[in-house]
Design a protein that fits this description.
Oligomer: single chain
Mean pLDDT: 91
Number of strands: 12
Structural class: alpha+beta
Shape: globular
Strand content: 15-25%
Low-confidence stretches: none
Helix content: 25-40%
Radius of gyration: 17 Å
Strand order of the largest sheet: 2-3-4-11-1-12
CATH topology of the largest domain: Alpha-Beta Plaits
Number of domains: 2
CATH class of the largest domain: Alpha Beta
Distance between the termini: 10 Å
CATH architecture of the largest domain: 2-Layer Sandwich
């Protein structure tokens, strides 16, 4: 089985209280038994995100996680990119409707454009210029459905299955800690 990661991202530009909000959400989720203690091996961490083990309620709902090395949550207190959204089949220019599938002759150019804007943490509405119509848009506007490319902060859940009640609790904790900001799920199979 290959690893996969599910992201819960806070959209929009970073706020001054993002790091405190992510930490507050983590503490709440620990109090609720959804997250455990810091566990560096539970998630890659990539040098900038704390790795937290799954809590007892999650392990009860998804016992298969206890047998996995990567089964934790990364806390992202600063902007991060969901590479899975760039690799998906669903990229569309929000201005002209150019649909960019896996075999589109300009796919590489458009993925580079969006990836570069996300890497530069461009949250503005002019971050991406469509090479076909030259219309300006935000990076996340290119994603079909509910995924995202760029988030200001959030969580990464390594190998967690979809668990509706637990997913709702994760959303509530993050939304309460960083109010007034839209949340969006994303995923990537590695």
């Amino acid at each position: 089985m290959s690893d996969h990661v599910r992201y819960l991202g806070v959209l929009g530009p970073p706020s001054a209280d993002a790091a405190d909000g992510v930490q507050a959400a983590c503490e709440r989720l620990q109090d609720e038994g959804l997250l455990g203690e810091v566990s560096p091996g539970a998630a890659p961490g990539h040098g900038r995100a704390a790795a937290i083990a799954p809590g007892p309620r999650v392990l009860q709902a998804a016992p298969e996680l206890s047998g996995l090395t990567r089964n934790g949550v990364e806390l992202y207190p600063s902007p991060f990119m969901n590479v899975g959204a760039l690799m998906s089949e669903g990229l569309t220019c929000p201005r002209c409707g150019l649909a960019v599938g896996p075999d589109h002759d300009r796919r590489g150019e458009i993925v580079d454009l969006l990836g570069s804007a996300a890497d530069a943490e461009r949250f503005d509405d002019g971050a991406a210029l469509c090479p076909a119509c030259e219309g300006a848009s935000g990076v996340n506007d290119w994603v079909r459905g509910e995924a995202f490319i760029l988030a200001s902060c959030g969580l990464a859940l390594w190998n967690w299955p979809r668990l509706p009640q637990i997913d709702a609790a994760l959303c509530a904790a993050l939304a309460d800690a960083i109010p007034g900001r839209p949340l969006r799920w994303g995923a990537w199979r590695i």
